[in-house]
Design a protein that fits this description.
alpha+beta; 6 helices; Rieske Iron-sulfur Protein; seven-stranded antiparallel sheet; four-stranded antiparallel sheet; elongated; about 35% strand; homotrimer; about 350 residues; Naphthalene 1,2-dioxygenase Alpha Subunit, Chain A, domain 1
């Protein structure tokens, strides 16, 4: 069911504190994460090989981790280096260690065959401390299958409806202005103009209406990197449907990662912000607060959708032309599952 | 397992407020209920045909309902009348609409084949605003199969035991005075005299003991309409076991409806009161308060009974002569399930 | 799956109060326990034979128990002696009665074939009011299979690790000093010396280090009776590994019983204390308080271990030489299951 051979986001890097062992679960596999003294992140299976006590309840001893049930001790490479009361340590005494990479501000874990782990295949993302931007970050837990959250991000026509109270977007536009979709390695790129879009809040200073250029990449399992730039009216028409040239007066960025925990649990990591010169910390807090409200609206809808699906799991959905993105992505996921 | 072809009580009419969409579940089917501008109640399947978001999280637009995930809009007959970003609306774009009838003070929903819906087959009940009576109403949710609640109502011998602390009924009488049972269309009628029954509370003004005539109809799936009249001692004997003639000094009414939600969840609607001239609002509140205490005693017992049954679901029960009502009704339910 | 033919601890005797009916569950069988007027404990199946209402919601009438749903009444031998509204009581109208014995301070229930119940086979234990000791007692509920708790008690090497913060035991000793293990009827005896063990708390008066003799019997399903005596340094060596002679300056006792409730629920009864002259009530409270903290550490670990096992129930554990006790006991349990 799960795609093993993929990099999954386990945490924001700042969430993995030195001196602590963190329990996480990805695709039904429990993980224990900690930092060695040089700051590198180690990801073990969260299950002592002896009696299956969670290693996340253990103790760090320098770079090693000791299970605090019967005291077996493991080096960062997963080998058992001490069994109390026993001199001989068998070869089989080890815990699975998963490949880890810290790229951007995320801790990525490779859940598949170690030999196949290739950190260069990790999708692009933005570091939270990138000096060009001002960003805030958090995460949200869903009681839903991760592909329902992916569906949501792969069809932004829902913005007008699901978020009418928070984002206050002009209703038909996100549905009417279909994005141009091109394939990426394990993903899709979406780009579109939303011409004459009304402004609100502190964006109002750009005028009552602007032309909005929206572009995002969406890569398996749910890595979303979006930039949305705001331009004077007429820019869309002048650009002939293509990416705008020149500096926009406002440049927003969003990055998100959807991580499957189990069949009905997922973690949603998100950051939002803007180009440093376009926003001050107070406005960023407002922008981020509204964004969080909107994400909670998605959560309410998607968790309810999951329950409704589960009442009758084999019933076919009605396809519409809105579903181009989700449908193409589901096919890609199916191909990865093989 | 469920009987589809039946009218089920979904709500007290006053519970379905204008301008809101109400989520209910009957026999495992999720429903979205709302009123059109003329007050008529519409019952949709609570599942948008597009991506299965619940319609109960949607928005009313006049008489129509818009799903607030991707914006599909449905007319009161269930037809989709708008798909944002798409001109053509396929025939298959619709949600199931269930036949609804408001009869008495209940909203009834026909869960079976629409062509077979016949509002004239709805069982009798009493409107809460019937000028002849003073009534109070509420509902209670059970974590139990609805037939266990039906069993309870089909054998009132439990009154002496389950409610000894609240109703304080004379213990052996409800078991000893077996009711006369006659079949009804999809139900049973129970009638009996309880002679020389002790009185309590404000009924004491009728004397220390009275003759009580108890008569109720019980119709699938669990519609209970009861009148209990109180008479001077000797009336039972003079009536020769038959229904009393003439006006009783006190006339109590009870109506209840048991609605299956799922295999282990049911909703129990109830109203209790008396002939308007026999009771004032203060006494009605006391009568209703005691009634609610007693219903919570039933709930405790029946939910515990459900758990005990579930520990060993195939074990046969011991039949006694108390079970005539429940046994006959279960046979009727079996015949309806075919 | 369960061993039926065994005595299980249902309660501390003081928990079964006169005049009340107590609900307990042992190996998935619900029980209703009460005392007759002479103080004897009766254990019924907690399920009326009529409609399966729990008898624990019933009423005591002298030595008899009445089900308070429809009023069936049962004598202490389980026979039904009254069915309201019915003269004839069929032979089959009875509830299962389980053999009960009060031995030590525990109420024991035989869950198997009544004919095979033999109270002389009940394992040894200590009465809480034994004048030679000062003891305190309580119980703890686990969301785990009882054999995981047994495993814990059958390998005390975990003491150094799981309880480092509470018991502060010298780390390697409990793992390094392997116990001498001998078989018992349905159990195992563990004995060992821990020489030069550091003291703490009020034990410090015995010197900075002592020789500790630890001996316990562990009998199916999880009856643990332990004495731990503290001796001047050198005693272990002088005793040549055998049980010490003469009176120790401090003598601690522990008794525990693990009772399976269901596949993922167990109750853990425990008492701890010391020889009466070795401890005063204030020190006993401190000793017991620390003991309870330690037992909660076990609970955290074992419940987490259960969850980890359940994620992948067929995965084999790594055997170590620590596991001699658990492994031998599991074989014994397997032989009893046949």
């Amino acid at each position: 069911m799960w795609v093993q051979d993929a990099w999954y986001v386990a945490a924001w890097t700042h969430e993995i504190e030195p001196g602590r062992i963190h329990a996480r679960t990805i695709i039904d596999q429990p993980l224990a994460l900690y930092r060695t003294t040089d700051g590198a992140v180690v990801a073990f299976e969260d299950r002592c090989c002896h009696r299956f006590a969670p290693l996340s309840l253990g103790r760090l001893e320098g770079d090693d981790l000791r299970c605090m049930y019967h005291g077996l001790k493991f080096a960062p490479d997963g080998r058992c280096i001490e069994i109390p009361g026993q001199k001989l340590i068998p070869q089989s005494a080890c815990v699975r260690r998963y490949p880890v990479a810290v790229v951007g501000s995320w801790v990525w874990i490779w859940m598949g065959d170690t030999a196949a782990a290739d950190a260069t295949s990790i999708p692009s993302s933005l570091a939270l401390d990138d000096p060009a931007y001002r960003l805030m970050a958090s995460h949200l837990d869903y009681a839903a299958h991760y592909l329902l959250i992916d569906d949501n991000l792969l069809d932004l026509s829902h913005l007008s409806f699901a978020h009418e109270k928070t984002l206050g977007l002009d209703m038909p536009q996100w549905a009417d202005q279909r994005p141009h979709v091109v394939p990426l390695e394990r993903g899709l790129r979406f780009q579109r103009w939303l011409a004459n879009h009304p402004t609100r809040g502190f964006m109002r200073k750009l005028g009552e209406r602007v032309d909005v250029w929206n572009s995002y990449d969406f890569v398996f399992p749910g890595i979303f990197l979006q930039r949305t730039t705001f331009h004077p009216q007429g820019t869309a028409e002048r650009s002939g449907g293509r990416e705008p040239e020149g500096e926009p007066p406002f440049y927003r960025v969003d990055e998100q990662a959807v991580t499957p925990i189990s069949a009905r649990a997922s973690r949603y990591f998100y950051a939002a912000g803007a180009r440093r010169d376009d926003i001050d910390p107070g406005k960023l807090e407002r922008l981020f607060g509204v964004t969080q409200l909107a994400f909670n609206e998605d959560k309410t809808l998607i968790e309810a959708q999951q329950k409704t699906i589960d009442l009758d799991p084999t019933r076919p959905m009605l396809g519409t032309s809105l579903d181009a993105g989700p449908t193409r992505f589901r096919k890609l996921v199916e191909s990865l599952q093989r």
